[in-house]
Design a protein that fits this description.
Length: about 400
């Protein structure tokens, strides 16, 4: 599709295969997934009580189950999705499929009038979101040189944070101002735009091997042992050979893959960093609202602003910390991040304790708590993507 009849070169090849456009596609895909993850939160009461007739006393329990099942599905399906993504001949097709699956899951959630349908929609949504993350980062790894991976990951983390911030806010605002179906329509429209961007994207490893690329055919005498990385009508790229390797070889590699990586201390450390980082961020969503409600009497608005303070710094600090990781590696940022977060997390729980000087005055205790949340929002960027970069780094 999108070909000119005269030379069969894709229309817009230069910008469609450019690194900035590929980064934009992945950033928007992950923005969409985090946007959809929180988008459902303010709509759940209407979904459960009004459309599915869940008793008011059970809404909190069902809400917790729906939010938890997303992570459980991600954990169960991630290895299988990664295996299928590696077997695919291109990254574009799995990306499109992942977004289509997320579209089906979102539509199922919106249409469901039975509780099992709500859970089914959330499960499908979780599979699509997990696939988007896995294939998205694999596409980045194919497209970006290792020395720039940290900056790209930091930039994308900024988009992810904006998605996490805007999802619940946009859903709540649209639900109040426009109604149920227009609210869901905005989420589905965002997914459609995302799918269109995936269709436009020409991944770089495909561009190198595509005979319709705008490069001139290489002369035979210029071909050498490295020319497989440059596409031409008469040569194959390494990626095209790798992607079409015999199934038996892939199967043998798959059987031994996890045994090999789980025997590496570096891999285990990277996985531990990822688990710790994710668990810490998830704990904020469940502990901060309850804590500030009983400690300071804050309602939904100030609590929501606290999460803006927690996620907002990523927009600025994410790219800066990514640049720092590119310069010095992942070890120093991770060490600084964890060492700084230890006292900050303690202070987060002690900000309202009367035995400490700063907590004797209520306003001082509130200011301390807010400042601590914002500082944590900055420092967590040192840990963002550390596990992924450590696993994919050369």
């Amino acid at each position: 599709m999108f070909f000119r009849s005269s030379d069969r070169k894709p229309i817009g090849y230069q910008w469609r295969s450019s690194t900035p456009f590929i980064i934009s596609c992945i950033a928007i895909a992950l923005f969409t997934e985090t946007f959809l993850y929180g988008f459902i939160v303010p709509i759940l009461p209407e979904i459960l009580q009004d459309r599915n007739h869940v008793p008011p006393g059970d809404i909190q329990r069902v809400t917790y189950q729906l939010l938890t099942i997303y992570g459980a599905i991600a954990m169960v399906s991630s290895m299988l999705i990664g295996e299928l993504a590696d077997r695919a001949s291109s990254r574009q097709t799995p990306l499109i499929i992942s977004l289509a699956v997320a579209f089906v899951g979102t539509l199922t959630l919106a249409l469901s009038t039975k509780l099992w349908g709500v859970f089914l929609g959330r499960i499908i949504q979780g599979i699509g979101g997990t696939a988007a993350w896995i294939v998205g980062f694999a596409t980045l790894r194919d497209s970006i040189h290792g020395s720039n991976m940290g900056k790209a990951a930091g930039l994308i983390q900024g988009f992810v944070s904006v998605g996490a911030l805007s999802g619940p806010a946009v859903a709540g605002l649209l639900l109040e101002l426009t109604g149920y179906w227009i609210t869901w329509g905005s989420a589905l429209l965002l997914l459609v735009v995302d799918i269109v961007m995936r269709l436009l994207m020409i991944e770089q490893r495909k561009a190198k091997a595509d005979p319709s690329s705008p490069q001139e055919p290489a002369a035979p005498e210029e071909t050498n042992e490295n020319s497989a990385l440059i596409s031409s009508a008469s040569t194959q790229s390494y990626d095209s050979v790798k992607d079409n390797e015999p199934p038996a070889q892939s199967k043998i590699s798959t059987l031994s893959f996890y045994k090999i990586i789980f025997s590496e201390r570096r891999v285990l450390t990277a996985l531990l960093c990822s688990i710790t980082y994710s668990a810490m961020l998830a704990s904020f969503s469940t502990t901060i609202p309850t804590h500030v409600k009983f400690a300071f009497g804050w309602g939904s608005l100030p609590t929501g602003l606290l999460f803006v303070g927690l996620e907002g710094p990523t927009i600025i600090a994410g790219p800066l910390c990514g640049w720092f990781r590119d310069k010095v590696g992942t070890k120093a940022p991770a060490t600084i991040g964890y060492l700084s977060l230890a006292p900050l997390l303690w202070l987060l729980g002690a900000a309202d304790q009367q035995q400490f000087p700063w907590a004797k005055d209520e306003q001082s205790a509130k200011a301390t708590y807010i400042a601590t949340v914002i500082t944590i929002g900055f420092m967590t960027n040192l840990l963002s993507s550390v596990g992924t970069l450590e696993l994919t780094g050369k």
